[in-house]
Every structure is written in C-alpha cells, then in structure tokens.
Amino acid sequence: MFAKEDCCYNTYRRILHDIKGTGIYCDYSDVLAESRKKYFVLRHDIEFSIDRAYSLSHIESEEGINSSYFVQITNNAYNAFSEKNIKMLQDMQKRGHHIGLHYHRGNVEGIDALKADIIFQSKILSQMAGLIIDRFSFHRPLREHLAANIQIDGLINTYSHQFFVLTDDPNSDIDVKYIADSNHQWKYGLASKEYFSQYDRIQLLVHPLSWSENGAGHVENFQDIVKEKHDEFVHTVEGEWKIFDQLRGRL
Fold first, then answer.
1. How many CA atoms lie within 13 A of 204 on its CB side?
2. What angle in degrees, to the nearest 10, is found between the helix axes of 111-129 and 83-94?
3. How many angstroms separate the CA atoms of 135 and 91, rounded?
4. Per-residue pLDDT tens for 65-77?
C-alpha cells in the first residue's frame, strides 16, 4: 500500500518527469494514426472525485503533459453534469487534456448491446457537458469484454489489443506493459524511470482518488475523500436551502 510520500503531488511530478524522459510519451490517437511501434500512454479513471482529477490535470499542465481523463455518467459519488463539474471538465479539455467515457456496463449483456450502450453514453456525455468524446475505458471489465477487442468507429478503446494484452501472467514477456495504481498500490509493475526503460510500449493508469498535495495512507486517504464529499454536500445545501442557518455547525 502507498505511504504518504508515495502518492503526494511531488512524487507525481517526479513520475511525470520520468514519463517524459522515456521519449516515447504520446496520446492514444497518435499511436493509431502513426502506427507507432514505441509509445507510452497515460490515463486516469475518475472513480470518486472530479475535483481530484482537476487538481491532477493542473499538475500535468504545469509539467507539459496532456493525458486522458475518463468520466462515469452513472456514478453515485459525483454528478458529471453539475455546473461545477462541467466547468472543470471543459477547462481540462481546453488545456489540451482528453476527456473520455469511463464505461460502467451495469446490467448490459452481450457485445452488441455493450457497444450500443457505450455509443449512447458517450453521446450523452458529449452533449450534456459540451465535450469532444473520442475514447472510452471500461470500469471493472469482464474478461470476455477484454478478449473481444471491441472496436467502435470514432471511439478509442483503451483496452483494445493495441494498448492492452490479456494475460494471466502480467510479468511475462508481452507486447504492452500495463501498470496501474489500483487499491492504493502499484499493480503489475512500478512507476519509475528504471522500470519504464525496460519496455517499448507502456500504458499507465493513475487513479486521481489516490493522489493529494501531501499524500495519505490507504485509510487516511478515504477518510479525506469522505470529508471532501461531506464539505461539498454541506456547501450545496447551504446554497440551496434558505433556512440553512438552523443546521449550520450541526452537520
């Protein structure tokens, strides 16, 4: 599990420097358009907080990196279509970051139905938030969905075979090295200069929920997220309810 220093913004800046140092960092679209043999792509799945994603995007902008942020529209933790969140997502895209759909399949069954639903949700996200949506990532994909190598015109699948290799042994010699910070720890590899140098094709998934100014351990990090959500809700109530003074200091 991450210690505080492992997931603070200064550590993330170091990781960004190491990514740029590979000399192969690019966008998913560049890999496809130019048939690149070597590449490093970076993405963020937004699970609990668009605010944290927004903060991370500013660090990347300061370090000269544009990456991809994937948003759910069926998430109980945030409303992608609130005025505040739309403004943040639009600003991220204006600064050069890419916004995509973080697709949660719910009860959808079958590949054709899945593809239709991804297209439907992508259009909703684009129209409601006023964004260009040209990519998607799965939330907790089933093995059969990864194996299907789903292709949709106009939408990049970050789990397509160009960017992800389905294997039971992530340490084996595979065409694309996939690294993720799932469960507040590095999975399938490490985010370091030495580790990056071993591979020609890398996809790195960083969840904004794990990263903050000073960093935090696993439990403390979620305590901080709950506090952030509590403060956001209280602020919302204060702005909407005329008799909020009766509750001030009691929530």
1. 28
2. 90
3. 18
4. 999 999 999 999 9
